[in-house]
Amino acid sequence: MANGHGGQRTPSSPAPVSGPGALSQRTDGGPSQPIRVPTGGAYGDATQLRQDQQGAPLGASAGGDQPAPAGLLAGLSIPAGPSFGAASQMPGVPVTDGAASGPGAGPEALGIPNQQDADMQFLQRYLVVMEHMANQVGSTAAGRNAVRAIKGYQGT
């Protein structure tokens, strides 16, 4: 090894991703993330965390120190909501308004059609066929229960 060859060689400008075959380049030895060790914790934890990070360094990446890249949500901001202890913006309206239970209007106030009613009305058209299938030898309990539910449905 008198001629200076051998040993570890770290490339001066490593490639972020290696190409195939003859276009391949070394990807090791590039910039890495700084070692970050949190404060606090049990005695000796910081030393162990530092050694762990030195043993397996991570490549450089956009972290918390850099702004997020522009994307689909660029320029959007989340409006500030009321604080937890703030006075109601709708006094006299119960918090259960629009829910299926409790004081106030129920889900019908939203003006959305009841999907269960629509489904049951559709299935009642085929009730004769479904009853025939439920009465066959080997029909399942689930099938018979479905027929009973359709027959007994009163709607809202």
Description of the structure:
The longest helix is centred in the last third of the chain and has 12 residues, at 141-152. The protein has a domain at 113-152. With 156 residues, the chain is mostly helical. The mean pLDDT is 78. It is built from four helices and no strands. 0% of the residues are buried.
A few lines on this structure:
With 156 residues, the protein is mainly alpha-helical. 26% of the residues lie in helices and 0% in strands.
Keywords:
about 160 residues; mainly alpha; 4 helices
Strand runs, count: 0
Average pLDDT level: 78
Morphology call: elongated
Q: SSE string, helix = H, strand = E?
A: HHHH
**Which blocks of ≥5 consecutive residues have pLDDT under 50?**
none
State which percent range the strand residues make up. Answer: under 5%
Helix amount, in percent? 25-40%
Provide a count of the helices. 4
Specify the biggest β-sheet: none
Class inferred from helices and paired strands:
mainly alpha
